[in-house]
Write a structure and sequence with these properties.
Rossmann fold; N-(1-d-carboxylethyl)-l-norvaline Dehydrogenase, domain 2; seven-stranded mixed sheet; 11 helices
Length: 346
Amino acid sequence: MTDFHQNLKVCVIGAGAIGGLIAAHLARIGTMVHVIDRGEQLAAIRKHGLQVCSKDVDHSIHVRIPASEGFDSGLQDIIFLAVKTMQIADAVRNIDALMHDDTVVITVQNGVPWWYFQRHGGTYESRYLETIDPDGAISTHIDPSRIIGCVAYPAATIVRPGVIRHIEGNRFPIGELDNTKSDRVSRISELLTGAGLKSRILADLRSEVWLKLWGALAFNPISMLTRATLEDICQNAYTRKLAAEMMCEAEKIATELGISFRVPMEKRITGAERVGAHKTSTLQDIEAGRNTELDALLGAVIELGRLTGTPTPHLDSVFASCKLLEKTVLQGVSNQGSTDSFTFPF
């Protein structure tokens, strides 16, 4: 490790499947990691540590990590913001307590990120996406100059509180919002690589965001409606065709925004199929009676379609169906007396 990594303080906000995976890998190599979470996950990490199980026994991890619910861990050099999109506004409300002048915030969310047009340099520079950041509420808490974008490709799930099953993948490519290759992004790439994760530096961050989103905007909502795994969706002729039609509409939007895809659509679908009998995060959320990331995965894409004048009939229909399902499920949970507000109580 270089001098940059010595005494480096890292905080992971949201130690779920992906945030926990990152925290465990960093802690395993001796990085000073602190996690912020809540509820049963926080209690389990405090009592038993954080465990990541893998098919490859050599890569299974069990580490002890300081954990808290509040922002009382002191100033941090790197913050991984790994909560779900609908939790960001609450999670960043007190984030200033963790930041010194040079603190870097690495965003690890699914879907269209709130910072999409920040440091963009194009026609829509600094525009807020109302679907995920109404009136720029999130942006006011985090200066875009602090942000490094990260696209998380691994498939992982929480087996039980404190225990994560790593199913497939270890790619966490990162990039500056203005696509420059800075010293800090190089050092963070080195840190993640040293922790056993693949973290190439992106020359076109938003194209990589779209590449992952391209499949997720179709497979996640379809899985939510059908309760099917990725493998099942891709192997059924009807749902495979629906996914392709949704992806075609999204590709037209992306093209209008200057995005190019480095792999063809069929290869992207085949890649999802290879993940196997994996439930998407959206399906896991709806089955647990939680809010989903539907707005970031699909609603924001539809908003970008309106912005660019691109028709989205298939995206609109699936989004409307999913929103009604989500509302119905959450009303059912509420009627059963749940007190879970599905947000971080910071």
